[in-house]
């Protein structure tokens, strides 16, 4: 690698691409399993350029990506945080290689469903900015059936118990399944969905987020499972066509 180029230690690169730990990288070097630009790596602290150098493990090229974009089907019982001294967090559900990501927004501990995690700060900001009006859609199971006036009240802006007036929201449900509603909001206040229905005299018994912006929860992901976003999903989230 040329001097003056931005560099990363080889062992840290191995961790970043999920190929192993730093101690495992040392073992790989001793076993002559790692090459940099065709040359066998002799030290695990070798400086490499992740964008320009070709780094191989057992002959297979390792690819470094600056940003990670993950879709998690969040289960109940974990909190939307990167670390917590007492509670299990969503990062505990991910392999160590994804230690750089953070949740985009929060889901309550007992709320399940779509949670986007990334280390792309610009995208994180755009998706959460109130000025962007990004839709968030929830499947809401209620204690009592939806009432005919819910649509009008949601559209007018529900007034919460503290006097806050919510932005207009859209609610839909099937007449034969009135206990399950689909609510689309553009805010993320504390316990907002639960508080909105409480203001209407109802109670949320189960809450699942199924969409955020253009990103829809993958129905093939079981609770606690995740996958990387496709390039098209990332482009759509960024508003690119």
UniProtKB/TrEMBL annotation:
EC code(s) of this entry: 5.4.99.-
Single annotated GO MF: RNA binding
UniProt KW keywords: Isomerase, RNA-binding
Gene Ontology biological-process entries: enzyme-directed rRNA pseudouridine synthesis
Entry's Gene Ontology cellular component terms: cytosol
Residue ranges annotated for the RNA-binding S4 domain, each copy included: 8-66
Signal peptide coordinates: none
One Pfam family recorded for the sequence: PseudoU_synth_2
Family: Belongs to the pseudouridine synthase RsuA family.
PANTHER family in the cross-refs: PSEUDOURIDINE SYNTHASE, PSEUDOURIDINE SYNTHASE FAMILY PROTEIN-RELATED
Name recorded for this polypeptide: Pseudouridine synthase
